[in-house]
Write the structure tokens for this entry.
Amino acid sequence: MSTPPTSGTRPGGLSAKARTRIAAGTFLTPFFVLFTVAMIIPVCYALWLSLFTEKQSGLGFDGPRTVFDGLGNYASALGDQAFRDGFWVLLGYCAFYIPLMAGGAIVLALLLDTALARARRFFQLAFFLPHAIPGLIAALIWIYLYTPQLSPVVKAMESGGIGFDFFSSQGTLPSIVNIALWEWLGYNVVIFYAALQAVDRSLLEAATVDGAGNWRIAFSIKLPLIRSSLVMVLLFTIIGSLQLFTEPLILNRGSGSAVTSTWTPNMYAYSAAFERNDYGLAAAASVLIALVAAVLSFVVTRFTNNRKEARA
């Protein structure tokens, strides 16, 4: 006499839990394969490459030899004034860019979310459209608008008695911040607006009945309820700021601006790899940039979690 199948198990088959695990593994495998190929392997290769350097053998007739250098490339990068100055440039960039980006996106999203807003779909598209333009094209567009001999904007400023050199040492940083804002502001507006749309409208109606105005509702109800979106945008903005590369590279190559080939840490790594052919130094610089990004991400996440626990 055969034993009846246990609950959740088909005759001659797998249990429901086993089938769920197999299905989950089947769907997750392509992601982990792509993640390994596109992320894990390149990171491991960069770590390995950063431990080696090329040195001339003998009198130099045999060409360079790749030798193990340990942490020598890291010491060279940290000891290079140009690499350290790049982080000071990023610090100034973040001081301008992050408050303007986060604050501007929040204000625009709150305005779109108010009951008085009209043509929401049009403004969402208008804000997001610049993000659809690649960073390279955006930088080229703004170089045209910054060039005095070509730009109608500069001519209008000069006719109004406003003189500003966008390519000078004082004007370069604001110029790049402006390009980045034009590219990414609308993207973050859409994120904040989507988060605001998920806020329970009954809470807003109750606050209105209690006599709260739009400002009080925005800062006391809406912003606390979209804190997770604020943290996410802040993290992405910090990481994106550390990866600043395309905009200053275009200004360096085509405008005669004050941007040098090592103006940011990413440009330093690019210059080391493709101008000096020092791939070990470039890999070490890239690893250091990634470590700084990881530390800053951890600090921001930790700080926001501590504040959330303190409020609870």
